[in-house]
Structure prediction request, 259 residues.
Amino acid sequence: MAETETQDKETQIPTNLRLLLILEEVARRGVGVKPSDLVETLGLAKPTVHRLLQTAESEGFLQRDLDGRSYGPGHRLRLLSVNTMSSEHLRTARLAILRSVAEKVGETCNLAIPDREGMIYLDRVETKWPLRIQLPVGTQVPFHCTASGKMYLSTLRQKTLDGFLAAGNLQPQTERSLTDPKVLRAEIKNITENRYSTDDEEFMAGMTALAVPVLDGQGRLVGTLSVHAPTQRHDVNSLMSFLGILQKGAGELSALLNE
Prediction:
């Protein structure tokens, strides 16, 4: 885009809207965004984009990716997303869907969202059984050894997944945790093909789980819907009988988020 054309277009965008447009574009893309991408897409001048990116980074709304050039959501933008999703109207409707799923399967159901270091439980409806797994709302769990976390990993770009597996942070939580990158990669490949993920006592001994993706209007994962159960009541194979119920619930959650 020619410099004069960029300057003309920039003057049409109110000053107090420019940073919001940058944050919106970074969130919309869902991958690391370079300043040049924002110049081209938004029509803002290069100095303006760099200045606003520096401001957003210093205030914690954006953060640099590992390449040092691209930007992704910072902790304050992620917190803004969580707070938005937790607004009274959305949460009431969301909990109604979770309760319906939990009643049908008879076990605890969770809605989890990805954060920088793991999956965070955003909502949870407990089973009525006295024997239950205690993982309250706000709990953060690892990516590599949970059904929700592996579901998220299956949606990453190959380069990002390679970086995660190469980082060497696959710490065992139980003797069943997948800590070999090759084995975990094969598991993630199956999850990508099947569109569901399981946890066979990989995160917690005596607990199994099944998770499915909750997608946005562009088909990107925004969260996971999962069911957890003690092994005394369900192994992974018996949890699979709930797959259709979970998928239907995830579809309803997607429709709610995309209204």
